[in-house]
Structure formats: C-alpha cells, structure tokens
Amino acid sequence: MTQTSPARPTRKPRRVKARFIAPLALVLIFIMGVFAVAILRVEADIRDQDIAERTAAVGKLFVQKLDKDTNLMMATMRTMMTNQSIEQAFLNLDRKALSRQLGPLFASLRDQHRITHLYLTGPDLINLYRFHSPNEFGDKIDRLTTVKARDMQVAVHGLELGALGTLTLRLVMPWQRDGHVVGYLEIGEEIEHLISEIRESLSVDMLVLVDKHMVSQQQWQNGQALMKREGNWERLKSHVALAQTIDQLPAALDDLTLQGLLAGHTAEIEDRGRSLHLAAVPLKDAGQRHIGDVVVIRDITALETTFQWSIIAVTAISLLSAIGVLGVFYLALDRVERDYRRQHDLEHQLLRFNTEYSRILQLEKLSALGTMVGSIAHQLNNPLVGVVNLAQLAERGVEDPIRTRELLGDIRSAGEDCHTFVKRMLAFSKVSCFESKPTSMAALIEDTVLLFRQTENKHLPVEVKLPDEPVVLTIDPILIRHALFNLLVNAAQATANDGAVAITLEREEDSARGASGWSLAVSDHGQGMPPDVMEKIFVPFFTTHSDGTGLGLPVVQHVALLHEGQVNVSSEPGLGTRIAIWLPDSVSDSLSSSQADVSRNQ
Description:
By secondary structure, the protein is α+β, with helices and mostly antiparallel strands. The chain is built from 14 helices and 17 strands. Helix 1 packs across helix 5 (about 190-200). The radius of gyration is 50 Å and the shape is elongated.
C-alpha cells in the first residue's frame, strides 16, 4: 500500500548545499579512513614479512654455524688423535701428561675459537679428564651424544643441556686403535658466541629460552654462576633464559606474549622507548627433542618513526585535497540551489492547484456516496411501503381469513425481496455476517496467496513464514481471507520494483488484555507512511490514490474487531510498512453465540 501525504504549499524549499556537502564530507572522511587503514595494514604486513624473513634467516644461519663449528671441532679432534704422544698418554691414563700436552691447545682453542669443553673418556664412558674442570673426573658420562657415539661407533654432534644448566654444542668421536675403541674424545662450545655472530650478521637480538621441564632450577643457577650472569628463574612461568644478546629481558615479554610466540604468532611490544617486533624459532637438541625456542627480537623504532611521519604527510595532503574538493562542490551547489529555489516557486503554485483538485475529488466521492445511499434507500423503501400498506389491509380484513392469508403472503414476499437485497449488499461488503469455525491458518494463507498471484499484475514474490507446529484458530475464514487479501493488495501497491511481500504468522501476547494470540502480519518494502497519513488510514474513504475507495483498511479493522482482535500498524518513511491482524486464541462464548444468531437470522 503506497500512501503519501499531499505536498503542502507552505513547505520551505530544501537547502541543497546542506543536504549534499555534509554527506560528501562524510564520504571523503570515510575514504581517507579506509586509505589510512589500508596503509596501516600494508605497514603491518611489511613488518610481519620482515620479521618472518629474518626469523627464517636466523634458523638457517644457526644451522650453518653449527655445521661450520662442528667441522672445525672435528678437524681439531682428528689432529689430536693422530698425535702419538697424546694417544700414548691417553692409553696410559696419564692425567699429568695429558694436561701438559693438551692444556696449551685447549687454552688456545678457548681464546681463539671459544671452545669451552674438552673431555677424554674411557671406553666404559668413565671420564678421565675435563680440561675446563680438571678436578672433576671419574664420573660416568651418559649424555645422549656420548651414548649414541658408543652405540653407533661414529662421530655424533648436536646441542645438549649440560649438567650445569648450560646449552652446549657437543661433538663426541670414538678414539679407535687397531680397530678397537680405546675411548672417546669430546669437544664442545657454549651457544652464546653463536647467537652473537648471528646478531652481527642479521642485526637482530636473540633470546634462548629453554623449557623448565628440561632443566632444574639448581642446574640453571649453577650455569648462571659459571657464565657469571644474573637471572631470574621466576621471570617466566614455563621457560627460563639460558643465553641472550640483550642486557635484560624486555619488561613487556610476559607469559601471555610468550605463549603467542610459541604458537607461531608474532608480537609487538614497547621496551624502554623502543618498539620491538618478536618471533620465535623452535630449538631442538641432539635427540631432536623440542627443548626450547630462540626468540628473535627486531628493533623497529626507526621504521615506525619513518612510517608515522609518512602517514602525517599523506594525511595532511589528503585533507587539503578534500577541502579543495568540498570548496568546488560548494560553489557548484550554490548555483544549483539558486536554480532550485526558482523552480520551487513554480512548484508552489502547482501544488496549490493540486490541493484544490484534491478537495474537488473528495466532494465527488461524497456525492457518489450520497447517490449510493439514496439508491439503497430507494430499493428498500418501495417494498417496505408495500409491506406497511398490506399490513393495514390485513388488519381491516381480519374477518376474511382467505384474504388475510393472501395479504400475509404478499407481505412475506416483499420481506423476502428486502432480505434478498440486503444479502446481496452483505455479500458485496463481506464484513457483516460472521460464521466462525476451526480453520487451518496455513491452508487459509496458501489459498489467499494463490488468489493474490492470479489477480496481481506485478507478479511480486511473496515470502511466507509460518511456525513449525500447525496453527488452527476459530475464525470466519471468508472474512480473514478477505482482510488478508486487502493487505496483500495494499503491500503490492506500496512495493516498488521487484521487492518481495512478506507474510508472517507468529505467536504474540497482548499485554494490555493479558491474552495470548497470534499475529498475522503483511510487510512491504515500500517508502512507508508519514505520520499525517498514519493518523487517517482507518478513516473510511480516506485514500492517497486517485482510483482508491478508502475502504481497504477500515474493512480490515472491522474484521479484526469482529474476531475480538485488533490491527497494529508500524511504518517509517523509507523503511516500508508492517500491518498485523492480532487474533486471540479463542473468541468469547457470548460473542460467538450472538454472531451465530445473526448468521441464522440472515
């Protein structure tokens, strides 16, 4: 149902500039916002790509340096094994001779190549000499690298957590003579110098974290004392730092951030005025166990500063451009507004003529209504005059039964004529008689929609939404179908283009009455109704269409009242209209019986 309020001649012309400049400014602001968000996303992607590339490079370079140092250590070990005096001292278990011959070599390796461990172990894995701790010997070496070298009889290398809580690259090689293993030579280096070299190569800091399940607190504290460092075992809940290239751990690196890094994500934190971008690389030992992670720390402070100044410059240029565009549009719209005001003056005169025409049309409708009422009165008056005359004749001829019966027959015939005429009028209006019976609402709606599709020319789609359970109400199906059809026709008139008309049936409580019932609603996607039209939609003969009767919604309201229901209307300009017929679960007994009497009398 399309209902529009007639244009008012006193309405002031709209301000074109105000209606266009504000939305245009909002559009420009939105575009600038989208542009800024896009730049931020691009910058974030660049940072993520950079940290990802550097993290991958750290992992690759870490492996390369492990292999390089392993080869150096292996060459050193082969040199020692080919020295006959060293071999003889080892076979004789001569600790003094070994100290005299290998002590200077170990000192040179420690100073020049950062070798921190040198072991001589017997074939039974009992330690003979530790050059970094000469006073500790005689214990069994059962680390993974040593056990694998014994079992496989080949050189074995890899990262291992030591007894002192340090992470060391170890190489263990069987010492063979005449095809027999006479012992094992082990050499190792702490991981600190490896991450320091990587830091110099890739300009990133690193933090080696080990799972606390892999090392005890006492071991870790011993290692910290050995490396002359101070640390905090309780700093992180699940991991502890064994090596790092920074002075201290960032304060913002907490357990939540660490868990995100371990899950494969990156993180950005602030630390002492610096912006840091973090990622993690898994760390595995010689047995391929995941013992911890290397946290890669990239300082992006300078990058962010450069980017922020770029954003400020781009934003300033964009603002100046937007102001220029708004100025040009303002001047153009000013000319349009002046032309619009001139056109409005012409429309003002046309609207006055249109108002006069509407008044004349309303007078014609009232005239037509008077003609119809006069015709009905004439149709009923003639037989009723005959009834009166015949009744008077019957009173005079009471003594003549035959004549009286004839007159009564004529009276009955005239009454039947009146009754027939009234029935025709009632059939035309379809809202005065009431015959309620249990009715399936799904079938009623389906029949009405089928009839609507056969008579509606626009062929609009109709969407029907019904409850899952069957709904059976005691109603007059003819009247409800007629009311629903009127609502569908009105919705089709109000719907523009290919919009759909929606029918819904849902349970709804009437809070005012405290009664339960059902709401049969029809919704359109039209322009809605203004408040002044909403106030008059139930006034008979009020319509906004030149060919309308103004009886559609009054008939719907009357049908609802006959069923002890009501009509609820909600509409907003531009958002469509929803008209719902609320029907109670059951009609009161008194009303049903009285309406049944009316039906029998008719």
